[in-house]
Amino acid sequence: MTSSSPSARPGADWPLLPPGFQFGTSTGAYQVEGAATEDGRGPSIWDAFTARPGRVVDGSTGALGSDLYHHLDEDTALMQGLGARGHRFSISWPRIQPTGRGPANAKGLEFYDRLVDTLLAHDIAPMATLYHWDLPQSLEDDGGWLNPATVERFAEYAAIVGARLADRVEHWIPVHEPNVAATLGYAVGTHAPGRMLNLDALWASHHLLLAHGRGAIELRRAGATSVGCSNNHAPVWPATDGDADVGASKIFDALWNSMFLEPMLLGRYPADLMPLMEDLLQPGDLATIRQPLDFYGVSYHNPIKVAATDDEADLPFEQRTIVGYPLTDAGWPVVPDALREWLIIFRARYRAALPPIFITESGCAYNTDPDERGVVDDQARIAYLRLHVNAVQEAVQRGVDVRAYYARSFLDGFEWADGYTQRFGLVHVDRDSLERTPKASYHWYASLIAAQPQHV
């Protein structure tokens, strides 16, 4: 492990958040754990998806990830070095139930026992996500999230995990980014399981929302005291001011944003989408989805620009490239002002229905490698984090109740369809040796945390 750092402090004018604001880090199980065939873990949809040629740009899999499974103590010590008060991780469903049903795998539960206890021993509050896209393959074989029975299996899984960990995990998220899981996995097929169903993927969206609700119920029964969500939100910009593009952007905004937040907060689907949802809804579904939330998690990366399509297209909208902004190495535009604006508009629109907000995921891909001194001088990531924390600070100053910011990701890992071609970590992981090297951004983030009022 290399800990040297350039003198990269960007000045003493740190963004300052209110006392008690929680800075943390995040990871996803399939991205970092590794140990894909160890200690009873079963196959997931991502194991099957990555085995298909052409699905991942570099032909890689998450079978090794960052090997956190065997580097837990080292990695937790590095988290402690940040001074971060929280860490968000996900629990691998096929590590707990190899086929997605039946009794728990004892060794799987033991691993998460150790993970939680190790975090607590280092004064790091655990935030656990039950589902971060790694559905047991056996359930996908039975229809996956298109099958309402998967919701029942998820509730059973949530009860198992809650019974074991609810006494020690501070915050819980049942389902991570259900809109991404449904859209990329079932509508357009770029993520596992790779189905291309267009609007028929709404069945998966609805069942993922039901899983959120059922999971929240089971976690509270097990004694969880803080249950929230993590929805991927993006401001949607029309490509032009023309009526067609503005209308298309409103449809896309309803499908990407409102379809997931309104059932959770208001117990209803957007009115414009109800004709699409009527065949899916069963009595009591919306009441199940609308569980009390102790926090609302916002996962933000960038805005989305949308244009109308012609009458012969399968969908009434298409995404367009956003120009005029710097890009990350993954090609994502860097638009921190859009995060501030989203938070302010979100609060204004939902006010009494909105619980405290956590930024549950915010990060960027920059592929800086160690130089000849072993230093990873990722100044672009420092600039990105600073701008986005500034955006949160400005929203708080405007009255938005934001209480946490979790940087993505703590470690470089497997980045889904991008494989290992993109690095999101504060800590560099060598793909051959698995050596950990804290980046300049790691040291900057530690200094940011140390500068906050609760540390004065």
Provide tags for this entry:
alpha/beta; globular; 456 residues; disordered N terminus; TIM Barrel; single chain; 8-stranded parallel β-sheet
Distance between the termini: 29 Å
**What's the main sheet like?**
8 strands, parallel
Quick one: CATH superfamily? Glycosidases
H/I helix tally: 15
Structural class: alpha/beta
The Rg value, from CA coordinates, equals 21 Å
- As a percent range, the share of strand residues is 5-15%
Q: In what order do the strands lie side by side in the largest sheet?
A: 4-3-2-1-11-10-7-5
The name of the CATH topology is TIM Barrel
Report the order of strands and helices: EHHHEHHEHHEHHEEHHHEEEHEHEEEH
Q: What overall form do the CA principal axes indicate?
A: globular
Q: What do you see in this structure?
A:
It is a single chain. This protein has 456 residues and is α/β, with parallel strands linked by helices. The chain has one domain: TIM Barrel, CATH 3.20.20. It is built from 15 helices and 13 strands. The protein has helices spanning 29-32, 45-50, 72-82, 93-96, 106-121, 137-141, 149-165, 178-187, 202-221, 243-266, 274-277, 285-289, 336-350, 379-397, 440-450; strands at 22-26, 86-90, 125-131, 171-175, 228-232, 236-238, 295-299, 304-308, 317-320, 357-363, 402-408, 427-429, 436-438. Strands 4-3-2-1-11-10-7-5 form an eight-stranded parallel β-sheet. A three-stranded mixed β-sheet has the order 6-8-9, with helices on one face. Helix 7 runs parallel beside helix 9, helix 8 runs antiparallel to helix 9 (202-221) and helix 14 (379-397) packs parallel to helix 15. The longest helix is centred in the middle third of the chain and has 24 residues, at 243-266. It is globular, with a radius of gyration of 21 Å. The model is unreliable at 1-11 (pLDDT under 50).
